[in-house]
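Milestone 3.1: sequence recovery, worked example.
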């Protein structure tokens, strides 16, 4: 029997694959548990339509990420905090602080998990931080850390 996998299945394939399995395996396990559906003409057409929609969505998200990367690449944010001797901060600047400052100063909302900090910022000065917006798209954001006057 030929079936369309609805979920990833170890040993058979990934979701959306059309695979041939034994009749018993399909009728007793895959179809009742919702792991697969029988590969009828209607199901195959709906699978192709869904793949096309997913591809268009991925393409539009990619284009939006490229535009946002250009916008982020041309700006810098300023974070003011308390510091001790020689510019050493009391505490540190984390990716959450950077995301909050970016939203507050430039009205750009970025998830804190997309901000790639190797380690929290612990000194004053200018730091370049990579923002990974999409798997193939990233931007460099300049962060100026200054002390309270």
């Amino acid at each position: 029997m030929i079936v369309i996998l609805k979920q990833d299945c170890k040993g058979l394939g990934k979701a959306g694959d059309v695979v041939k399995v034994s009749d018993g395996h399909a009728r007793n396990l895959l179809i009742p548990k919702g792991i697969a559906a029988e590969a009828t003409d209607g199901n195959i057409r709906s699978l192709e339509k869904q793949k096309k929609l997913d591809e268009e969505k991925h393409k539009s998200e990619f284009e939006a990420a490229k535009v946002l990367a250009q916008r982020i690449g041309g700006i810098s944010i300023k974070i003011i905090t308390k510091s001790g001797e020689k510019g050493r901060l009391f505490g540190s600047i984390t990716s959450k602080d950077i995301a909050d400052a970016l939203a507050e100063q430039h009205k750009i909302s970025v998830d804190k998990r997309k901000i790639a900090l190797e380690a929290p910022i612990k000194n004053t000065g200018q730091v370049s931080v990579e923002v990974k917006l999409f798997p193939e798209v990233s931007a460099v954001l300049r962060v100026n850390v200054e002390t309270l006057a």
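The longest strand covers residues 137-147. The beta strands are 2-5, 18-20, 36-38, 76-81, 88-93, 115-116, 121-123, 125-134, 137-147.
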